[in-house]
Amino acid sequence: MKRIVAVLGGGSFGTAIANILCHNGHQVKLWLRDHQLADHINHQHVNNRYFPDYPLHPALIATTDPVQAVADAELVFIATPSKAFRATIHPLQQQLAGKCIVSTTKGIEADSFMLMSQILQQEIPTAKVGVLSGPNLAKEIMAKGLTATVIASADNELRQLVQSVLHCDYFRVYGNDDMFGVELGGALKNIYAIVAGMAEAMGMGANTKSMLITRALAEMSRFAVNMGANPMTFIGLAGVGDLIVTCMSPLSRNFQVGMALGQGKSLEDAEAALGQIAEGVNTLQLVKDQADQIGVYMPLVSGLYEVVVMKQPVEKVVRSLMLGEQKTDVDFSVTELLARQ
Q1: Contact 120, 101 (CB under 8 A)
Q2: Closest CA to 123 of 152, 89, 146
Q3: Entry pTM
Q4: Which homologous superfamily is 4-177 in?
Q5: The domain 189-339 is classified under which CATH number: 1.20.1530.20, 3.40.50.1980, 3.40.50.1580, 1.10.1040.10?
Q6: Cα dist. 143→101, 151, 248, 251, 268 in Å?
Q7: Residues 242-292: pLDDT tens digits?
Q8: Which residues are documented as binding site for NADPH?
């Protein structure tokens, strides 16, 4: 069944999602701010800023008018940076009322510590809200590499709708009703990708990388469960799956920032070279403050905070991490997990 869909945000992931939707036969409008880029997409069928080597489906329509983009859409994906999220949807409250809206943004609002789904529920209370998250590097999706993601929502009809419009022979969509856990996992893993990038730049071995990823999973799930998430979510695609890909792939924006920091570059130079938003940098200080406030032990977050915000030498922080308190390996027992179901 052909659907009318809008994608707000013409960055790498928004473009990749819009392209899948078009190839699946749906009518898609992609909103972006850049008039020149919109014209290029409409006439040359290429997003030359993010994917100059990958042609887009010729039916994809780019527009710089957000009202026109969402006017007839029954399903709207939002793929803007977290800093621009509320400002993007606020003027569209009337047009988005009652629609199915899915956030693909993996970040946290600075002043409120709200996730994007919570902003959606506040700004557009009549909308059906979901989040899409998982190990999804946009460039691999454009190359049609086999990929899986998670649609999380309390609304079963929305989950089924998203699964039906995105599923194809290289893209699978799994459902989850723990929207908070899926979304928080997507935001938290960006912090650890920066740590992993630093480790890579410093030439650390496989033992170290394995330790970092495993302890990152323990740390992020400990924080998320304290905030109300289901710990089982973190053993799925939106938890450990997303953590692995973002901590292992040089395509990850946050990993690239970590690499630059590990090579001795400043944060400003690292972000300038990236040319895109690395959400982990913004998320780091917010999570550090929140963890301190609720008393959750997060040594990797604290260590990265010392490097990025307090400008401490990386080597000194790494040594202090190894001398820190030794906790138990696994935080949750099977009995405890079952009790939470």
Answers
A1: yes
A2: 89
A3: 0.90
A4: NAD(P)-binding Rossmann-like Domain (3.40.50.720)
A5: 1.10.1040.10
A6: 26, 21, 18, 13, 31
A7: 999 999 999 888 999 999 988 888 888 888 887 777 788 889 999 999 999
A8: 12-13, 33, 50, 106, 138, 253, 277, 279
In the residue annotation, 189 being an active-site residue is answered as yes
Q: Say which DSSP state 253 is in.
A: H
* Dihedral sign of CA atoms 192, 194, 197, 199 in order: negative
**What are the sequence ranges of the domains in the chain?**
4-177, 189-339
Which amino acids are annotated as binding site, given as ranges? 9-14, 33, 50, 106, 134, 138, 189, 242, 252-254, 277, 279
Q: What is the pLDDT of residues 77-110, one digit of tens each?
A: 999 999 999 999 999 999 999 999 999 999 999 8
Say if residue 113 is exposed, middle or buried (CB neighbours under 10 Å; 0-12, 13-18, 19+).
Answer: middle
CA distance 188 to 223: 9
